[in-house]
Amino acid sequence: MSEEKQFEEMVRENVPLAPMTTIGIGGLARHFAEVTTAEALVAGAQWARAEGKPLFVLGGGSNIIVADRGFDGLVLRVSIRGFEHDVNADDVTLSAGAGEEWDPLVAYCVERGWAGFECLSGIPGRVGATPIQNVGAYGQETRDTMVSLEAFDLIEDKVVSMTAEECEFGYRTSRFKTRDHGRFVITRVMYRLLPYGQPTIRYPELERYLDASDSGARTVSSVRAAVLALRRRKAMVIDPLDSDSRSVGSFFVNPTVSVQEFETIKSRAGMSSDMPAFPVGENEIKLSAGWLIERSGIKRGYVLGNVGISTKHALAIVNRGGGSASEVIKLKGLIQERVFERFGIRLKPEPVFVGFDEDPEA
Question: pTM of the full predicted structure?
Answer without folding.
Answer: 0.90
